[in-house]
Amino acid sequence: MRKNVDFLVIGSGIAGLTFAIKVAKHGKVCIVTKSKMDDTATSWAQGGIAAVMYTPDSFEKHIQDTIIAGDGLCNEEVVRFTINESSERIKELIKWGTKFDKTTTGRYDLAKEGGHSEYRVLHHKDSTGREIENKLLEQVKKHPNIEILENHFTIDIITQHHLGVEVNSRTEGITCFGAFVMNPRTRLVDTILSKITLIATGGAGNVYSNTTNPLISTGDGIAMVYRAKGAVENMEFIQFHPTALYLPEEKPAFLITEAMRGFGAVLKTRDGKEFMHKYDARLSLAPRDIVARAIDNELKLSGEDYLCLDCRHLNKNELINHFPTIYAKCLSIGIDISKDMIPVVPAAHYTCGGIKVDEFGRSSIVNLFASGECAATGLHGAKPDCTGQTDWLPTHCLNRLFFLTGPVHRPSARYRQ
Ligand SMILES: Cc1cc2nc3c(=O)[nH]c(=O)nc-3n(C[C@H](O)[C@H](O)[C@H](O)COP(=O)(O)OP(=O)(O)OC[C@H]3O[C@@H](n4cnc5c(N)ncnc54)[C@H](O)[C@@H]3O)c2cc1C
Question: Is 349 helix (H, G, I), strand (E, B) or coil?
Fold first, then answer.
């Protein structure tokens, strides 16, 4: 089967859905997604989204926190415009129906996470991503210009290579014409031709045996661009989240959000001793790479398999109210987090590298854009060289799309070697 659309969107997480909603007023949009439409890393996000909302926070403080957490390897230009737009993008999510928690005074209940000098993380209890995914899907489903095809696995993007032209990584003007997609009903490969294609296929956490990522996070879009001879970079920059629930028989690993440490939970050894003072003055709220390395080091020193997160000193009702999903998950394996310490280990969490794009999401392939976790913008550390890109990129810009994560961090030196 052959289909023609104006915009082909590969992936139904926050990046793909946001793009689809925005461009639908310009033409026909087709979203293809390889599993159920809400089977995304987005649905799993717990802690929330960092954005500048109120004083004493400021864009400049958030920018500096991000650059520090990126260990000086961020692309400052990208950091600046992403953070300067943060409040506007949050307003957009709210306009589309997302409900972030508020305090009794009506202000947003902002949380603090590692590497942040201010309270700035908007959240919906501990299931922020699920709330966002559901509300974006509601918008997409009711839009007459958007079609969404579930269980449609994209195999490859189409370029002139498929018309018999030899293409290599030095070929100028490699152009994307759409994608080959597996149709689950006919079991045949459909050709979807599009004027613009967006890859929003998420991260590649499942390359690692211990990851917080859902099974769909296999780096497909990054691999497609690599096969099409497009630019991919910084794939060695993987963020390890310090606190995944230690449950070796369970894959993927269940995340214990960093917001819990922001709420007062403390990292301890199995025999209840604090250790973060040996590594960083910010203790349990140091940036993720520092905390993950500290845990790794402690595990090597002790020979234990896990360390612990202690919430026992926190108010039980508030703890359950803020973290109902984590409370229920731990209880299901016999851990009452108000009485027992939570066993934790680091796990691969976020792919900082990916498809090389500029600040407008434009890849090195004409008419191909990438957004979300599959894209490497330089926001998260490891600085891409964007010079000279505009020569071969289309002059029109669709919109600026980034999932506003908090500062994410360079991996340990060990992983960079
Ligand atoms: C447990 C967990 C907690 C997190 N918590 C937070 C948080 O609190 N704050 C924060 O900022 N970030 C958090 N993150 C990171 C964040 O959720 C992701 O970076 C973000 O949701 C990625 O969005 P995305 O749209 O790029 O990709 P995803 O949401 O992963 O969507 C990818 C989409 O692409 C589709 N796809 C993939 N390959 C193909 C293919 N070959 N063909 C067709 N479709 C394909 C998938 O089916 C899926 O629909 C968390 C991540 C995890 C795993």
Answer: strand
Task: Give the range of the structural domain holding residue 284, as residue numbers without chain letter.
Answer: 241-346
Best residue among 405, 408, 409 to mutate for probing ligand 1's pocket (most ligand atoms within 8 Å of CB) is 405
Atom of ligand 1 nearest to the CA of 33: 44
Q: Which atom of ligand 1 is nearest to the CA of 372?
A: 26
Is residue 416 over pLDDT 80?
Answer: no
Task: Give the closest residue (by CA) to ligand 1 atom 21.
Answer: 42
Beta strand segments in 200-305, E: 232-233, 238-245, 266-268
Estimate to the nearest angstrom the gap between the alpha carbon of 50 and the chain centroid. 12
5 vs 196: CA distance, rounded Å: 9
- Ligand 1 nearest atom to the CA of residue 406, by list position: 11
Q: Which of 306, 329, 346 is the last residue of a domain?
A: 346
Active site residue 130: no
Give the separation between CA 60 and CA 78, rounded to whole angstroms.
13
- Domain boundary among the residues 346, 373, 403 is at 346
128-141 and 14-23 are packed helices; what angle lies between their axes, rounded to 10 degrees?
30
What residue's CA is closest to ligand 1, atom 46? 11
Judged on CB neighbours under 10 Å (0-12, 13-18, 19+), 312 is middle
Helix axis angle for 59-69 and 76-84, nearest 10°, is 140
Same domain, 223 and 253: no
Pair 57, 82 in one domain: yes
Q: Please state which of the ranges 200-214, 219-233, 328-342, 380-394 shows the lowest mean pLDDT.
A: 380-394
- Continuous H helices in 45-172: 59-69, 76-84, 86-95, 128-141
pTM assigned to the model:
0.91
Beta bridge partners of 74: none
